[in-house]
Every structure is written in structure tokens, then in C-alpha cells.
Amino acid sequence: MAKIRKFCAYRRLERPYTRKSKYRKLSFIKSTPHSKIVRFECGNLKDKFEKKVDLVSKNALQIRHNAIESARLSSNRMLEKNLGKVGFRLSIRIYPHHVLRENPLASGAGADRMSTGMKMSFGKPIGSAARVKEGQTLLTVSVNKNNVDLAKKALKRASYKFPCPCSIVVR
pLDDT-based confidence at 116, cuts 50/70/90? Predict the structure, then answer.
């Protein structure tokens, strides 16, 4: 299996040239890669909670779908361990629409027979990313008043998975 390219190649927000359309002929990207995010809502979806704690981005950038899933897993594990499955609600507030592409360039012996260099270098889809603006909410945890500190810790743990500085806001 091929290694994932470092995300510094895709982090900057540029004008997207990855249009997806419900009409195949109008799409620049013919196939969209599978997203690794399993679920966008976790925990107790029925009850109302007193407080909401948000994880807010401080920069505008792109966040890859496997980073979002990794953040969800780490925070959800901590919340479930301490509050059970009904003591919180975790929501992912961003969606990876933007398709990431890669132009594979071969190196080493025999590379001249396989590679075409940068000729027609639109690239093949390798993954998807969410385009995030400065000040946009990434994750939201809803809990009762006495569990706000635990929700802050869980979001702090999730912020380590994102490639940007984040702040935690209690509403």
C-alpha cells in the first residue's frame, strides 16, 4: 500500500478545481474517493444538554478526512469512558467535500518508460478534505454543567489531530 503524502502539500486554501456534479459529463472529477468518517453524530442524540463546548479553528485551511475521523475517535473514546454512551453528544460540524488529487511521478530505474512528467497533470483522486474558514466550528460537544471540564479535555485531545491551532469555546 502506498504511503500518504505529507499534508503540507494540500493544507493551503486555493481555488478548487475539483468540481463534482450529479451529471457525469459536467464533472472534472469522475469518481469521488470513499470518506473514512464513520458517523457525524455520536452519543445521546435524543436528550437536550445544558452546555455546548465548541472546537474552533484559528486558521483557514483544509483538513483531510482521516484527520477528522481520528479526532472523532480520540474524543469519543474519552467521553464514552467517563460519561457512558448517554452522557454527551458529539457532533462533527465540517464535511470533506473537496477532492484531493495527486500526480504520481516515478523515480528510480525505468521511470522514463512509465511517467509522463507534468504533461496532462490533473492527477488522480486520493482522498477528500474539508475546507475550513478562520473561526469556523469543527466539533461540538453537548454535556451537562458538571461535565464541561471533561468535554474541554476531550476537545483538547481532538485538537492535536488537526493541522491547525484551535480554541475551545463554551456556550
Answer: low
Domain 33-98+125-171 CATH (choose: 3.40.50.720, 3.90.1170.10, 3.30.300.130, 3.30.360.20): 3.90.1170.10
pLDDT of residue 118: 75
DSSP tag of 32? P
Please report, for residues 1, 35, 39, 46, 74, the alpha-carbon distance to residue 69 in angstroms, rounded to integers and kept in the order given. 20, 9, 9, 23, 9
- CA quadruple 86, 56, 163, 67: dihedral positive or negative? positive
C-alpha cell of residue 69: 475521523
Beta bridge partners of 41: 91
Amino acid occupying residue 21: S
